[in-house]
From TrEMBL:
It is a multi-pass membrane protein. Keywords: Cell membrane, Membrane, Transmembrane, Transmembrane helix, Transport. It is found in: Cell membrane. The gene is dppC_2. Belongs to the binding-protein-dependent transport system permease family. The chain crosses the membrane at residues 12-38, 88-113, 125-145, 151-171, 217-244, 264-289. InterPro entries: BP-dependent_transpt_permease (IPR050366), MetI-like (IPR000515), MetI-like_sf (IPR035906), OppC_N (IPR025966). Residues 86-286 form the ABC transmembrane type-1 domain. CDD domains: TM_PBP2. It holds the Pfam family OppC_N. This is Dipeptide transport system permease protein DppC. The keyword Membrane applies. One of its GO terms (biological process) is transmembrane transport.
């Protein structure tokens, strides 16, 4: 296992990793501190004025110094909505990955350790799941949910629904990763020793094998957060994600798309830039973690 000193040295010697880490840190802090730093609360109707709608950025003719990135069609400052929207996108992405990890790690651990018909059944189930498009399943589930309940109920439970739908649709990636690691670990001496002293399978799986499979789980988690955010943005752009009055980055892009050809390009452009930067930073960090934590690619960091 790579030491913390070696891990830090690798990070500080890689300009791409440093850049991606700084971008991600800025975006996370921006999202977390939005209630304290945002010039405007886009959820508070008392702070909105329809007369401020579609104002250009402050440096453009007709701009207002209160809104340095301009405003949208509802009079909300684009910078404020980006801060709040980044938080919602991160919440959905991280929440969906937690659901994926809980399901995938549990089923992958059981499949790899038990083997036999249990392994065959769970892996065939994973094959079926992987053969279906996550976006297609999410569209069907969320469209049915929207049709079954009114807009207010959907708005209240949109975050929970997106987390559950994306999480349940993506669990096979964790399951297959964990299963492959467990197949290699279960034949090692420490597992045989645990069986000899009479430890039950549950303790062997969770207390001994699982800690040795967490490295690939960490890598895939980083990449899956980016993918979950991208899926949510796609659903929101299609009108099946977050409602416009509770914007994520995807719903912000959608809300401004109809105005982009009328000259109000800033409503869509700036949220799109932040979304691309967020996904790119997560993917670059995931790729860097994969290289660093792969023992075949390390050269004496320990």
């Amino acid at each position: 296992m790579i030491s913390f000193k070696g891990f830090l040295r690798r990070f500080l010697s890689d300009p791409v990793a440093i850049g991606a880490g700084l971008v991600l840190l800025v975006l996370v802090l921006m999202a977390v501190l939005a209630p304290f730093l945002a010039p405007q609360d886009p959820y508070d109707l008392m702070q909105l004025d329809i007369m401020d709608s579609e104002l250009p950025p402050s440096w453009k003719p007709g701009g207002d110094e209160r809104f340095w990135l301009g405003t949208d069609a509802q009079g909300r400052g684009v910078f404020s909505t980006i801060m709040y929207g980044t938080g919602i996108s991160l919440l959905i992405g991280i929440g969906a990955v937690i659901v994926q990890a809980v399901l995938g790690v549990t089923l992958g651990l059981i499949a790899g350790y038990k083997g036999g018909w249990i392994d065959s059944f769970l892996m065939r189930l994973a094959d079926i799941q992987l053969s279906l498009s996550t976006l297609m399943m999410a569209i069907i589930a969320l469209a049915l949910f929207q049709a079954a309940f009114d807009a207010n109920i959907y708005a209240d439970y949109a975050i929970v629904m997106l987390i559950m739908v994306i999480g349940i649709a993506e669990w096979p990636k964790f399951a297959r990763t964990v299963r492959s690691s467990v197949l290699g670990e279960r034949k090692k001496e420490y597992v045989d020793a645990a069986r000899v002293i009479g430890l039950p399978p549950r303790k062997i799986m969770w207390g001994h094998i699982l800690p040795n499979t967490l490295t690939p789980v960490l890598v895939i988690s980083t990449i899956q957060v980016a993918e979950a955010i991208m899926i949510e943005a796609s659903l929101s752009f299609l009108g099946l994600g977050m409602p416009v009055d509770r914007p994520s980055l995807g719903s912000l892009i959608r809300s401004g798309f109809e105005f982009i050809f009328s000259g109000s390009w800033w409503i869509t452009l700036y949220p799109a830039i932040v979304l691309v930067a967020l996904i790119l930073a997560l993917n670059l960090l995931g790729d860097w973690l994969r290289d660093v934590l792969n023992p075949k690619l390390r050269r004496g960091e320990d």
